[in-house]
Please model this.
Amino acid sequence: MADVIGLQIIFQTLGEANRLKIIEFIGDKERSVTEIVEATGLSQPLVSHHLRMLREARIMETQREGPFVYYRIRDQRLLEALKVFLEIFN
Model:
């Protein structure tokens, strides 16, 4: 039953359009908050909020380089899974 709860958290986290935009922009790269803000047009506080949610759901991970924090998708298979969902429901 615990696996179902974890899956529910992941789907709830992914069920927000701005988070999906962030995931799509990051793709297979590492991106800073500044890059994400510029690409999505979202405010910095809103991007930070969504990134925190994605980190807490273990979808994103970070790497600090000096004063900068870079975000990346923890498991690239997520991108493939999202493509499959789009194919199924389009």
